[in-house]
Design goal:
Keywords: Membrane, Transmembrane, Transmembrane helix. This is DUF748 domain-containing protein. The chain is mainly β. Among the domains are: 183 residues, no CATH class; 279 residues, no CATH class. It is 14% helix and 54% strand. It has 19 helices and 64 strands. The strands form three sheets. The protein has a 41-stranded mixed sheet that branches. The protein has a 20-stranded mixed sheet that branches. The termini are far apart.
Length: 1294
């Protein structure tokens, strides 16, 4: 146990000794091998580029000191290295306050640090960019680096004794050497706002011995005897300063010597805290500046100082600068001989400020340098400048109480004279001033009063008038005065400040007088002296400002306020301008600007050429009175003066912020508008019109008011000459005799181009009118006996319009005539393409589409609504006829749609007027060669012959009947008028019609699927009043005829004409080639007087053709022909042929009837209710009948063969009752009627003139039936025939 304890003790002691051993070894290496450690560290950190050698470096851990002897820091390899450094420190001693701060907090606390005779050599052979002077260093970097340094280093005392710095620069023959530098810093601990602590220290002292510095350019030399600075007093002193700048090819030699130079400041830390250099006092004692005396200077712009100051400091401020006993010597560059100089003078500058960020780098409150009294004469001694007192400030001279004018008071006043309280010359030549010559770069004439007097020369023959300021003339009067003034005062720029003046142009005609106040001008004197005209004089005026000017000349008055002209750049400004013309026009402009007014062009070509004109407010108030006409002698046309055209004008850019025009014209007509943001490019004129490349702007409140006439108002116009011009809220009203018109247009859009005011030649891409409203009331007045001559129609302009659109235009047209009025209301769209017009010739268009919708037409006899109409005109041409009337030729294509048409019809004899209702009408018109001429009526067949019309749900109601049609259509291609699903019926019901006290008559209703009128010759109908129809087809016609035999017959019945006579009685001439009936039927309903029951005779499957239907037969042999077939129950009438002659006055006819066979019981449905008889048996062979007749009677033969006839008579009231009387009647009938018949029967019927043709036919056939069954005898018919033939002409018997 004890052995193990010892071992543990030894082990613990060994572990405790290891740290001490390591620390000891490290201490030994650090103390004995510190030199080698530092050399290795430098070699490693510089990657072998630099070497550190030292004779000895000693470190004392306990004393906390470091001593260095003969330390050398050099660059080992200097090849291809543009910048490198060499440092030698013979001796240095460092005392550290705390190792713990260094090791733990990585902060070095120095008690004292002494460096003796250090030498620093900098080799800078880097090739810098050409013309690059600005350094990348800024004083704010000092504060940043100080703060970083203080984070790791504090020093109570830091001293450099007899240090030196050498800088070798590329292309510099001699290096810059700074030697004998002593620097002491106390308590370098912290940065605060204490102005006495500079660079974070309590005190900083700098001292330099005698120096000779060759500056970085290798040419300029600065030397001084000593330099001292202490931050405690913030005083900087330099003794015996000498600066020498040798002569170069661009500049001469400059030398500056000063006995002493010093400054002090209370806020030097602002250099790195704010980037500002603020000095309280800067004093230079007995400086002498030697400058070359040359006759020619070459300006060299050196911006290095400006750029470096701008980089180093934000601001430089020196409250007081004083130069004591300063001198300026002027010498020759070739030798040291003194040419001129100044006496010793004191120069005081107050509040000198250098602001690199400002436009003016250096500014001061005042500079004082005083001299005294002189007068100056021109070379010819005719003019002089008299000066009472002058003061020299820097390179400037201030003259007081200056007078310029003729040297002798006897000289009359022509040309220019002025007086001024002050004249300032800047950058004056001292050598010339000594010789009493005024030579400077700038002159400032303060508050002068200038007078210019000129005389207009009378034009020589031939008499040619010219404007005085555009005529080149010899140097006289004002020109001679100006040249004398220029010889006396030789300056580059002449400034006039707050002057006033008068200008007079004397002459026998058109005198001009002008007064101005507040004149400020910059005149380029050399250009002025070379001027021989006012044009060149104006160019020589680089800047001109006039506060107020009044001009009066030849009926014109002009008032101008705050005018400015920049002659060099040819800029002109006017704050306010008012021009009053003798014609009554007043022009007022505010904020007017124009640029580059070319006087040369005006002089040579009489063209006003301006690069740009801008005006903020422009008001034109024109009060034009009507011209007073007076009797004038007749002058030959060749001798009459021609009307003056517009002045020749070329303006590249015209801008107007606000433009207002008010015009009061003759006959109390008012017009005007307001414009905003007007922008016109390339504005030019020809003798009649303005032209432009582009016109932009906004016009508001445009109006034109004519008493009792036209009124036009436009709320706003957004104008763009080459794009879209939009007119908003347009209102137009016109009130003339018998006509009132109002137009409201919310929006109108026009796409240009329209490049001029020549509105006789217009070329536009598109015009859009959006939702216009047009109301027009026309009330024709009774014309007097003398009718006014109508104005001949003519195309007024040349027009090219690619597209015209009118959208949703509302029209309300009212025409009053007496008590009646016609009103049309609609909403219409119009589209037109490629409209071209030639003035006084013709107009053409590719297409025009007019689409009215919801058209409401109210006339005295008709009221209707047209849902839509589409009228398309293509390839049209409009021109004037020889009579001066407009004539239009085009391809017309129109579509029409009407709904709920309800025209108001009239009736005769005060009866109930008929009613016509149409649910819908759809129609098209296609007329390739449509022609319209004003004053010529359009024939309706012209439209019908090219139209297609479809009428739906037509209803016509007269006093007695109603006609309805599901569809009525017209097809011009086939000349076809077609009715579909039509019906004809009496107005009253059948029950009402057959109720007493009504008399016996037919109640007829007709229903049809289709009726076609083909080949309708509308044009012929219009031309010779004859309606020609080729073919009429009716399909599926159902005719119901009802008669009640129980009603009494009418007391008087009119005679029924034969078909040909009936047709001839129609008043309207017509000719129908044929009428076809297809699949139709006739149902005859008769209420029997015997049985009181209704029997029906059905004729079905009626098919037939009626030919040559006319009331104007062309030949005597023309006949009305009918060929038909039908079915009567089981009897098929195969052929019914009827022919009636138009040329026969007796209406002679022939008829042929052929039928099928028949089982007679099939006819019982007819005989039962109508005759109270049944055909119980019997067979009828095919019937054949031939009939000839006229309007009196018919005769013929009939083959009515049958067998097994069995007839049973029934009771009249009760067909089921078998009374004794009925049995007796059946017995008699069986005895009378033949059971069979195989003999032809005679037909004869004495026509009842009261019966229509169908009854005539039936009675004629029934006469043959009665003969065949034995009821009638052939002999009896023959006797009746012979008897009637004695009275009338009858057809011959077979």
């Amino acid at each position: 146990m004890n052995i193990s304890l010892k071992r543990w003790v030894k082990l613990l002691l060994l572990l405790a000794a290891i740290p001490f051993l390591i620390v000891g070894v490290a201490y030994f290496i650090l103390v004995s091998k510190l030199k080698d450690v530092m050399e290795f560290a430098v070699w490693k950190q510089t990657k072998g580029g630099y070497a550190l050698n030292s004779k000895d470096i000693k470190l004392s851990i306990f004393d906390k000191t470091v001593r260095i002897d003969d330390l050398v820091f050099t660059r080992k390899d200097t090849r291809n290295v543009p910048v490198y450094y060499d440092v030698k420190i013979p001796k240095a001693h460092l005392s550290i306050e705390s190792w713990r701060e260094l090791l733990v907090n990585k902060r070095l606390l120095i008690d004292s640090f002494l460096i003796e005779k250090p030498e620093v050599v900098i080799h800078d052979y880097k090739v810098h960019e050409k013309n690059r002077h600005q350094t990348s260093f800024h004083t704010s970097m000092i504060l940043e680096n100080l703060q970083k340094t203080l984070d790791h280093l504090h020093a109570k005392s830091f001293v450099i004794q007899e240090g030196s710095l050498t800088l070798f620069k590329r292309n510099s023959a001699e290096p810059l050497r700074i030697k004998n530098v002593t620097l002491t810093v106390h308590n370098f601990l912290k940065i605060d706002n204490n102005d006495k602590r500079l660079f974070g220290s309590d005190n900083l002292e700098l001292a330099l011995g005698r120096q000779r510095w060759v500056l970085s350019d290798g040419k300029n030399i600065l030397s001084f005897r000593g330099l001292r600075f202490s931050s405690a007093s913030q005083l900087f002193e330099i003794d015996s300063v000498h600066f020498h700048k040798p002569a170069t090819a661009e500049q001469d030699e400059v030398i500056l010597r000063a006995e002493k130079f010093y400054f002090n400041s209370k806020h030097l830390p602002a250099i790195y805290q704010k980037g500002e250099l603020s000095l309280d006092t800067l004093i230079c004692v007995r400086p002498v500046l030697t400058l070359p005396l040359t006759t020619q200077r070459v300006p060299v712009k050196d911006t290095s100082i400006h750029s470096n100051i701008k980089s180093l400091f934000k601001n430089v401020a020196i409250r007081y600068t004083e130069i004591k006993d300063g001198e300026i010597l002027l010498g020759s560059p070739k030798n040291n001989a003194l040419k001129a100089g100044t006496q010793k003078a004191n120069l005081n500058i107050f509040n000198l400020k250098v602001n690199p960020q400002n436009e003016h780098l250096i500014t001061t409150d005042s500079i004082n340098l005083n001299l005294n009294n002189i007068s100056f004469f021109s070379k010819d001694s005719l003019f002089k400048i008299s000066v009472e007192r002058f003061t020299l400030l820097n390179d400037d001279v201030l003259f007081k109480n200056v007078h310029y004018g003729p040297a002798s008071p006897k000289v009359a006043g022509k040309g220019m004279t002025f007086t001024a309280p002050a004249l300032r010359l800047n950058n004056i030549s001292l050598d010339d001033l000594i010789r009493k010559r005024l030579v400077a770069t700038d002159a400032e004439l303060v508050n002068p009063n200038i007078t210019l007097i000129a005389t207009r020369k009378e034009p020589s023959k031939p008499r040619i008038t010219a404007n005085h300021d555009t005529v080149t003339r010899k140097k006289t009067d004002i020109y001679q005065t100006l040249n004398s003034f220029g010889e006396l005062l030789r300056v580059d720029r002449f400034h006039i400040i707050n002057g006033s003046g008068q200008y007079k142009l004397a002459g026998k005609t058109k005198p001009v007088h002008a007064e101005l106040k507040g004149l400020n001008a910059l005149i380029m004197v050399k250009d002025l002296l070379a001027s021989d005209s006012l044009i060149k004089i104006k160019r020589a005026i680089a800047d001109l400002k006039v506060e107020q000017m009044n001009v009066a000349a030849n009926g014109l008055k002009m008032q101008l306020s705050r005018y400015r002209m920049n002659g060099r750049h040819r800029f002109n400004w006017v704050d306010k301008l008012q021009i009053d013309l003798a014609s009554g026009i007043t022009i007022a402009a505010g904020k007017l600007y124009w640029e580059a007014f070319s006087w040369d062009v005006l002089q040579q070509t009489k063209v006003i050429q301006i690069d740009q004109v801008r005006v903020q407010d422009l008001l034109v108030d024109a009060k034009i009175k009507p011209k007073v006409t007076a009797a004038e002698p007749v002058v030959a046309s060749a001798d009459k003066p021609q009307a003056k055209g517009l002045p020749k004008l070329r303006i590249r850019k015209l801008l107007a912020d606000h433009l207002k025009l008010k015009a009061s014209l003759p006959k109390n007509v008012l017009a005007g508008f307001e414009g905003y943001t007007i922008d016109v490019s390339e504005l030019t004129t020809d003798p009649t019109y303005f032209r432009w490349a582009q016109f932009l702007g906004n016009l508001n409140n445009l109006y034109f008011r004519q008493p009792n006439g036209k009124q036009i108002a436009v709320a706003q116009i957004a104008l763009h000459s080459h794009q879209h011009t939009v007119l908003s809220d347009i209102r137009y009203a016109a009130n003339s005799q018998g006509k009132i018109m109002q137009v409201v247009l919310p929006k109108m859009q026009i796409k240009g181009p329209f490049p001029s005011t020549d509105f006789t030649n217009i070329s536009l891409s598109s015009v859009l009118l959006d939702r216009p409203e047009v109301t027009m009331l026309t009330e024709p007045k009774q014309q007097s006996g003398v009718s006014a001559t109508a104005k001949a129609f003519s195309i007024p302009l040349n027009l090219a319009l690619h597209e015209l659109n009118i959208k949703q235009a509302r029209l309300n047209l009212i025409t009053k005539k007496g008590k009646d009025s016609t009103q049309l209301q609609t909403v219409v769209d119009v589209e037109a393409k490629s409209i071209h017009a030639r003035k006084h010739e013709d107009a053409t268009f590719a297409s025009i589409r007019v689409s009215p919708a919801d058209l409401k037409l109210a006339m005295p006899k008709i009221k209707t609504t047209v849902q839509s109409v589409n009228v398309q005109l293509t390839n049209g041409k409009l021109l004037a006829t020889k009579d001066g009337k407009p004539s239009l030729t085009t391809h017309l294509l129109a579509n029409l749609t009407l709904h709920d048409l309800h025209p108001t019809l009239t009736s005769k004899k005060n009866t109930t007027p008929p009613e016509l209702r149409i649910k819908g009408v759809a129609g098209t018109i296609d007329m390739p060669n449509f022609r319209w001429t004003a004053g010529q009526k359009m024939a309706w067949p012209t439209f019908v012959d090219h139209a297609n019309v479809a009428i739906t749900d037509l209803s016509f109601k007269s006093a007695r009947s109603t006609i309805k049609a599901g569809k009525v259509s017209w097809d011009h291609k086939y000349e076809r008028l077609q009715l579909d699903n039509f019906q004809l019926s009496p107005l009253i019901t059948k029950e009402e019609f057959m109720t007493p006290p009504n008399l016996q008559s037919d109640y007829i209703t007709i229903q049809g699927e289709q009726a076609q009128l083909n080949g309708v010759k509308a044009v012929r109908w219009y031309r010779d009043s004859t309606l020609v129809v080729n073919h009429i087809v009716v399909k599926n016609i159902i005719t119901d005829v009802s008669r009640d035999k129980r009603l009494p017959d009418p007391a008087v019945l009119p005679n029924k004409l034969m078909p040909t006579r009936l047709i001839s009685g129609i008043k309207v001439p017509f000719h129908i080639d044929s009428i076809s009936v297809i699949n139709s039927q006739v149902n005859y309903h008769e209420t029997s007087k015997i049985t009181n029951r209704v029997g029906t005779v059905p004729l079905k499957d009626i098919n037939g053709t009626l030919k040559t239907v006319t009331n104007r037969p062309t030949k005597s042999t023309d006949s009305l022909k009918l060929l038909a077939s039908t079915k009567l129950l089981g009897l098929h009438i195969k052929r019914l042929h009827y022919r009636e002659s138009y040329g026969d006055s007796l209406s002679g006819f022939h008829m042929l009837l052929r039928t099928s066979d028949l089982n007679m019981p099939e006819l019982s449905p007819i005989t039962n209710p109508m005759a109270a008889a049944d055909l119980e048996d019997g067979y009828l062979e095919p019937i054949m009948a031939r009939i000839a007749g006229n309007k009196y009677a018919s005769v013929g033969n009939m083959r009515f063969y049958y067998k097994n006839l069995k007839l049973r008579l029934l009771g009249h009231k009760d067909t089921t009752r078998r009374s004794l009387l009925i049995k007796f009647e059946n017995f008699v009938a069986s005895k009378i009627l033949r059971k069979k018949n195989q003999q032809e029967a005679r037909i004869f019927y004495d026509r009842d003139q009261k019966k229509f043709i169908f009854g005539y036919w039936i009675k004629s056939i029934m006469s043959g039936v009665l003969t065949s069954v034995g009821v009638k005898a052939n002999k009896k018919y023959h006797a009746n025939y012979l008897k009637l033939s004695q009275q009338h002409t009858l057809p011959a018997e077979d």
